[in-house]
Every structure is written in C-alpha cells, then in structure tokens.
Design brief:
253 residues, Arc Repressor Mutant, subunit A, two-stranded antiparallel sheet, 10 helices, disordered N terminus
C-alpha cells in the first residue's frame, strides 16, 4: 500500500489496528461495550463489520502474543472492568525511579494556582477550574494527579457528568497541615497581601529618598566647585556669579 492510499477497513487485520490504536490512546480503561459503541458510531460504509466481544478479546490475545514474540515491554491488560496498555511488572522498579524523580520537581506557578482553586473550592470540576483561571487545565491536572496532590473523588450531577477533583493526604503532608481547616482564610490572605504590598512600597520610597539625597549631595559639590573655579559664569539656576578677583576687590569684603 502506498503512502498516499487510505487504509482499508475491511478484514481482521485493520480491525486489529483500530482496536490497538484505541487501547493505546485511551487515558482510562475501555470496556468491550465501549469499543463496540465506537465501531458502531463509524460512517455508514464501515458499519458492515460485525464487532463482538469475542472478536475484541481474540484481537487482544493476538496483539499480546505479538508483543511477547517481539519482546515488547507492555501488554494490553484487563483492569477496572476494561482494557488498557500497561508496562510489564518487572519494569516497575524503573518506573518507580522515574516517578520519584518527577516528584522532586518544584510546583510551577500555574500548578500552585490550580491547586489553590481545588483546595478552596473542592469538590470542583475541570471546567470550573478553567473558568476561574482562564486557561486550559489538562496538563496541570495531570501533573497534580501524578504527584498524588489531588484525586478524582466522584462525578458532578450536571450534564456530561464531569469528574470532580479534591485534595489528598499527600497535599496535607506537602504543605505541613493537619486538615483543610488550617488553610489560611481569604481574609487572612488579603491581609498578608496588603502587608506585603505595604512593605514593597516602603522599600521603594526609601530607595527613592536615598537616591534623591545622593543626587542633591552631588549637585551641591558641583556648584561649589563651579563658583570657585569660574570667572563670573552662571550657576544651575541662571544667576550671574562674580569671579574670584571681583570678590577680593570688593571694598566691603
């Protein structure tokens, strides 16, 4: 088949490719019913294929056999009532090292903002987090879930049944608090922010005064030097100054 041709969707081989792609791309286990529904929602020309649970299981078995024969590090496994790709158990120690290495990274500003929204608004959905922050929260939520700082705690009773997120015990440990009641109240946060702004303003004012005093000191020295060395020139404000010789000739001096 040339690179320009579209793949044919007839026969077991192409169905196997589609099923493999579905399990590879999914973020959560796919049930056999979900796979059948995906095939059933195809275009009219693709609905002639008869997809059954037995066929899907046969494809999964066939794919896993191929992975084993070619020494692949993963398999399609049954988990939580569905099927999903998973790494072979004996690679767990290496994956654990990777997770620990990731956990050492500091939380980004966007992660802290999203975490604050979840902590104060929980249980909260992803659309609600995005509405408050004004940006997409997919990557940040994935990162927080990966670090076990937040968890999926249910589904909202709204259209689409979006997932609800809340903080975990790891969140409490990370921030050194016993329970959520120890989080600072919004009023306390506002007071802390006001104090911080006041300190910044005080520091800026002090720096401006020091700079002004330094400039005035340098300006006074320059005028004195100009009056001694000059021959009746003008000072900074435009006044005519007598020369040194004229000062010594003044009878009143």
């Amino acid at each position: 088949m040339s690179a320009q041709q579209a793949p044919s969707f007839s026969g077991l081989a192409s169905e196997k490719e589609i099923i493999e792609a579905l399990f590879f791309a999914t973020d959560e286990p796919l049930t056999l019913r979900q796979v059948i529904e995906i095939f059933g929602s195809a275009e009219e020309s693709d609905r002639n294929r008869r997809i059954t649970p037995e066929l899907i299981l046969s494809v999964i078995e066939d794919l896993n056999r191929e992975y084993s024969e070619t020494g692949r590090t993963f398999r399609i496994v049954k988990i939580a009532g569905g099927y999903q790709f998973a790494t072979q158990p004996h690679f767990g120690v290496w994956l654990g090292r990777m997770v620990r290495e990731r956990s050492k990274r500091k939380l980004s500003v966007s992660a802290l903002e999203s975490l604050a929204v979840i902590a104060y608004k929980q249980p909260v959905t992803k659309p609600e987090i995005e509405a408050i922050r004004g940006v997409n929260a997919d990557y940040v939520l994935h990162s927080l879930l990966e670090r076990n700082l937040v968890a999926i705690i249910g589904r909202a009773a709204t259209p689409g049944r979006p997932l609800l997120y809340g903080t975990t015990k790891e969140f409490l440990k990370h921030f050194g608090i016993n329970d959520l009641s120890e989080l600072p109240k919004p009023r306390e946060i506002n007071e802390l922010m006001a104090e911080a702004e006041f300190e910044v303003e005080k520091r800026m004012l002090k720096e401006m005064e020091e700079k002004r005093a330094a400039e005035e000191g340098n300006g006074s020295d320059d005028r004195i030097v100009g009056r001694i060395d000059g021959e009746g020139g003008q000072d900074e404000v435009g006044e005519n100054l007598p020369g040194v010789d004229e000062l010594t000739r003044d009878p009143d001096l």
